[in-house]
Amino acid sequence: MASHTHENSHAVQAHPADPKKIRKIWMTMVILAIVTAIEFLMAFTLPKGVLLTTLFVLLTFVKTFYIVGEFMHLKYEVKSFVWTICAPTLFIVWLILSMLIEGDSVLSLRYWINIFFK
């Protein structure tokens, strides 16, 4: 067998850290930590109910859109692409809410019909 020697011309080069990118990562972490701390404080200070649940859902959406915008680089994309992703998501949320409202309406109507006809 003949031995072949190959020189590795693809040497890895380390570049110095970009301070702007590191600052952006820290700012993202701080913003998400602040929103999470607000949620944590609300969980222990506000009474349980519709208001607390609504605030939790809204803050969760804020964190979700911020994470998607930063880490998936969606906020740096063309606006039509952003709407291509966001519009179907909004329709799915609308569908879930409308099904919950309609289901509650049917359940409530069934309850009153049972009371009225018994």
Structure description:
Helices cover 75% and strands 0% of the residues. It is an all-alpha fold and 118 residues long. It has two domains: 20-76; 78-118.
Give the key terms:
118 residues; 3 helices; 0% strand
- Number of domains in the coordinates? 2
Q: Describe the biggest sheet?
A: none
Overall geometry: elongated
Overall residue-averaged pLDDT value: 84
Helix segment count? Answer: 3
Please trace the helix and strand order, writing H or E for each element: HHH
Strand content: under 5%
**Regions with little confidence, pLDDT below 50 for 5+ residues:** none
Gyration radius, to the nearest Å? 26 Å
Structural class: mainly alpha
Number of separate strands: 0
SSE diagram, text form:
Elements: H1 19-45, H2 50-71, H3 79-117
Helix pairs in contact: 1-2
State the gist of this model.
This protein is mostly helical and 118 residues long. It contains 3 helices and no strands. It is 75% helix and 0% strand.
